[in-house]
Amino acid sequence: MVQLTSVHPLFAAEAKGVDLRRSLADAEITAIVAAIDRFGVLVFRGQHLTDQQQVDFSERLGPVAFTRQMDRPGHRLRIDPKVGDISNLDADGEVMMGENRRRLDALANRLWHTDHSFRRTPATYSLLSAHAVPSSGGETEFADMRAAYDALPASKQAALAPLVAVHSIETSRAAIGFTDFTAEERAALPAARQPLVRTHPGSGRKSLYLAAHAGAIEGIPTPEGRMLLLDLTEHATQPQFVYRHTWNAGDLVIWDNRCTMHRGRDFDPTERRDMRRTTVSEVAPLLPQTEIS
């Protein structure tokens, strides 16, 4: 059965005693879900999953969403389209350099975010596996949004409770100067309304629901809303709320997007970093979406 060891005082744990390459019993899946509910981030070392094994395991946790691919239409994909290519490698397995579109878009992964909050039906879990890692750097940092919420004054919690944020993939990319979206891409990913505070269905805990994708708060002037989002992000990513994961090849890390944020860290761009992500989706939007044009 799964054995858990905390890796941070507030959240995140290393899970041992389970081989994710095999088909797990329902009781094992239930135990893993309960552990994610509790810790928000689970680290599985030495798994060395194939893409299909990662997809199979992910599908035990819920419906797997196709990850947005930033290669131009007609370009070959390096891996299964159900698996997001979070690497710095092109379709031939060579390191991407210079003006490569996917490389520039992916730089926004170094901003604090939660996966798929820009989609009207957002993500529950993300599963990221390491196939090749650079000699240094390239860590992933996670922030516990439950602890960050708990640390707010009660008056602030009450003020945030009814607020709705507008999330868009264009917002996070504009923050780094990336605006190279086609009309088809813009139409496929319209802005999404998301609650600023969420209650986790498994743990019952409230958390801030933030991301670099959020660019406005409904009912608040845009500059004021953005300043609120920046202030909350600064609060939520203080060192006491953050776990930094240093990757080894073969690691699989699962995180719950409903109660954490994360960001990638810098590394030597000439070195290979082959990371592959599957993303499990909610089954429906959290809020009505018809008000967004």
Quick summary:
The chain is an alpha+beta fold and 293 residues long. The protein is built from eight helices and 16 strands.
Protein topology:
Elements: E1 3-6, E2 13-16, H1 26-39, E3 41-44, H2 51-59, E4 64-65, E5 84-85, H3 101-106, E6 123-132, E7 140-144, H4 145-150, H5 154-160, E8 164-167, H6 169-174, H7 183-188, E9 192-195, E10 197-199, E11 206-208, E12 214-217, H8 222-236, E13 242-245, E14 252-256, E15 260-264, E16 274-281
Parallel strand pairs: 2-3
Antiparallel strand pairs: 1-2, 3-14, 4-16, 5-16, 6-14, 6-16, 7-13, 7-15, 8-9, 8-12, 10-11
Description:
This protein is an alpha+beta fold. The protein has a single domain (3-281), classed as Clavaminate synthase-like (Double-stranded beta-helix), CATH 3.60.130. The chain contains eight helices and 16 strands. The chain has helices at residues 26-39, 51-59, 101-106, 145-150, 154-160, 169-174, 183-188, 222-236, and strands spanning 3-6, 13-16, 41-44, 64-65, 84-85, 123-132, 140-144, 164-167, 192-195, 197-199, 206-208, 214-217, 242-245, 252-256, 260-264, 274-281. Strands 1, 2, 3, 4, 5, 6, 14 and 16 form an eight-stranded mixed β-sheet that branches. A hairpin with a 6-residue loop joins strand 1 (3-6) and strand 2 (13-16). It is globular, with a radius of gyration of 18 Å. It starts with a strand and ends in a 12-residue tail after the last strand. The mean pLDDT is 95.
